Amino acid sequence: MNNDSTFTELLIEDYKEPLLLETINNSDIEWFSEYNFLIKEISPEILSKDRFFKWLMSHYEFRAGICRVPKFTCYDWHKDIHRGVSINMLINESSDHHSHCFFSLNRDYAKKRILSKRITNNFMELCYKPYRRYVVNNQHDHIIFNFDETRYLFTINFELTKDKLNYNDFISFLIKHQREWM
Q1: Edge-first strand listing for the sheet containing 73-78
Q2: Which of 117, 118, 138, 139 is exposed most, by the fewest CB atoms within 10 A?
Q3: What are phi and psi of 54, to 5 degrees?
Q4: How far apart are the C-alpha atoms of 131 and 153, rounded to whole Å?
Q5: CA 126, CA 118: separation in Å to the nearest integer?
Q6: Residue (of 135, 131, 133) closest to 168 by Cα position
Q7: CA atoms of 159 and 1, how far apart (whole Å)
C-alpha cells in the first residue's frame, strides 16, 4: 500500500465490475441527493463477488454508492461532516476525463492566519486511476473540480462515524490484516 496522511492507493486488482456501469445506466434505480451529490446505491450482492469487499463486509458495516458529479462543477474546500475515512474509485473510463481532487496540506493553518491575509495553501492531488481503489482521509480538507463530462465515483460510506473510525486506525487495520484480503 502507498500510505500517506491524505489518501492511500490500494495495490490490489482493479475493481472493474460491469454491474457498476449497468447501475449508472439503469433507469429503474433512482438517484437520490446527499450532500449535494446525486447517488445510486450499490447492493452488497454486487460487492460480495470481489474478494476485498467481501472481506471488508465481514469486518465493517457500510453502504456503497456511485456519486454523480455534473460537468463544470466544483465541490468547494471541506472536511466531511460524518465520515472519517472512505474508499473511493473513479468509474469514468475515458482517457481524456478531466477532474481533479486536491488535498490541502496546511488549510487549517491558513484559516487561523486569516488576519495576516494569508490566502494561499499547499496542496497535493489524488490522481485517480479508473477502477483503482483509494482509502481517503475525509477529515483532511479537500476540493473537487470536474470539467467537461459527468464524473462517476464509487464510494464506501462506513456506518461508523469519524469519531469511531478514522483514517489512521483504518489504515493500521488494513496493514495488520493484509494477508487476508490481498
Answers
A1: 73-78, 142-146, 99-104, 123-126
A2: 117
A3: -60, -45
A4: 9
A5: 24
A6: 135
A7: 24
- 88 phi and psi angles, rounded to 5 deg: -120, 155
From the list 77, 70, 96, the residue with the least C-alpha distance to 152 is 70
Strand order in the sheet with 134-137: 7-9, 134-137, 85-90, 151-158, 62-69, 37-42, 32-34
What would the pLDDT profile of 8-52 be if each residue is shown by its tens digit? 999 999 999 999 999 999 999 999 998 888 999 999 999 999 999
Q: What's the mean per-residue pLDDT of the chain?
A: 90
Residue 160 near residue 86, CB atoms below 8 Å: no
Whether pTM exceeds 0.85: yes
Question: Residue 137: exposed, middle, or buried by beta-carbon count in 10 A (0-12, 13-18, 19+)?
Answer: buried
Integer Rg of the chain from CA: 17
Q: Note the Cα 151 to chain centre separation in Å.
A: 12
DSSP secondary structure string, 82-142?
Answer: S-SEEEEEE----TT--EEEEEESSHHHHHHTGGGT-----EEEE-PPTT--EEEETTS-E
The string of pLDDT tens digits covering residues 94-118 is: 767 789 999 998 776 555 555 555 6
